[in-house]
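Dear H.,

Thanks for agreeing to be a second pair of eyes. The structure we're designing against is below in token form, covering all 361 positions.
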């Protein structure tokens, strides 16, 4: 298989998640209590750890090959990171609801180096690794998306802020690798809204990955706040810039949008793994295993089986637990059906994704 060392031992067409997992209503209330000053950090930590254990168990019962912590320690995709970033000033540290965004300002440049990774993501990973024997995907928000939620008073050029955040995330990634992480995913949920800045984002991603010998994934979607897309469009905006990124997987959404972007990925010659979104996380309707299998079969016409990873479009946060579990079970069942069709002696060398489409195709 061509998936890299993090994928050793997983089956052909490995199933995984993008990152986030449903937050139960009771947990949302407790997290909001914390941000309103009615719960201690120690109590909140207990809540997080209990929820992470449950999310891991759900994924294992569903048969997911590569699991995640559900990002359940995080109030949203931005603030968990910015609140720990040295020099970031928050207008208020309380929130009406835990998923609200902070008003964050950077009055002075970030440190040029870090004695210790300030976000302490390696500690989060270590807890998850202690609770499961399954391969783990650990995700974090990328430097470009983080920069979009900062009022920058420190740098003349916004690109300098993106690069500074990338250097901080590189320190986090090095610590994660030292603690045993083998599959790290960078999420750029804001990038689709700024297609003219994709080169800046890709350059920063290469700073994040520099010198960190793990399997790297890059997830780009069209937004998933409140289970709604923030933007619409096609993935051609990523190319050709994304070809220069030092990642091993490109994780994209196809279920909600349809698979017309698959030929776009092939046309531009993406020659590494592709994370195929087969579950629409913005819909509570549970896909049938047959539909999942058909989506995988369609992708296999363009992508070799040994370069295909099966996952939801985005994180599962905005679904109920029951719906998320049912969707994951359907994804596993549909994937298993295609594996049986491929058989044990699958020839995965046919039609490489690097083969360009004929002119005008």
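And this is the sequence the design step returned. I haven't edited it by hand at all.
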């Amino acid at each position: 298989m061509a998936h890299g060392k993090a994928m050793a031992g997983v089956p052909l067409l490995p199933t995984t998640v993008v990152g986030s997992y449903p937050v139960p209503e009771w947990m949302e209330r407790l997290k909001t209590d914390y941000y309103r000053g009615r719960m201690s950090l120690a109590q909140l930590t207990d809540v997080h750890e209990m929820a992470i254990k449950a999310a891991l168990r759900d994924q294992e019962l569903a048969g997911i090959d590569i699991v995640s912590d559900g990002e359940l320690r995080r109030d949203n995709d931005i603030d968990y990171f910015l609140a720990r970033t040295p020099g970031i000033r928050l207008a208020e540290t309380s929130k009406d609801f835990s998923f609200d965004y902070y008003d964050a300002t950077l009055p002075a440049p970030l440190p040029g180096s870090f004695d210790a990774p300030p976000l302490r993501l390696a500690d989060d990973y270590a807890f998850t690794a202690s609770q499961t024997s399954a391969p783990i995907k650990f995700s974090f928000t990328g430097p470009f998306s983080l920069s979009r939620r900062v009022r920058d008073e420190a740098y003349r050029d916004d690109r300098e802020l993106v690069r500074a955040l990338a250097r901080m995330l590189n320190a986090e990634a090095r610590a994660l690798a030292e603690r045993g992480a083998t599959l790290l995913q960078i999420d750029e949920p804001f990038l689709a809204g700024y297609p003219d800045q994709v080169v800046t984002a890709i350059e920063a991603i290469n700073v994040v990955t520099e010198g960190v010998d793990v399997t790297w994934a890059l997830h780009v979607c069209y937004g998933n706040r409140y289970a709604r897309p923030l933007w619409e469009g096609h993935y051609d905006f990523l190319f050709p810039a994304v070809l220069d990124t030092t990642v091993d997987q490109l994780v994209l959404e196809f279920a909600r949008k349809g698979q017309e972007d698959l030929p776009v990925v092939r046309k531009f010659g993406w020659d590494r793994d592709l994370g195929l979104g087969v579950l629409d996380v913005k819909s509570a309707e549970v896909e049938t295993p047959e539909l999942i299998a058909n989506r995988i079969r369609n992708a296999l016409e363009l992508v070799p089986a040994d370069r295909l990873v099966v996952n939801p479009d985005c994180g599962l946060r905005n679904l109920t637990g029951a719906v998320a579990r049912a969707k994951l079970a359907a994804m596993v069942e549909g994937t298993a059906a295609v594996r049986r069709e491929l058989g044990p002696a699958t020839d995965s060398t046919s039609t490489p994704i690097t083969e360009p489409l004929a002119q005008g195709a």
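Two observations from my side: Residues 41-62 form the longest helix (22 residues). The longest strand covers residues 273-279.

Warmly,
E.
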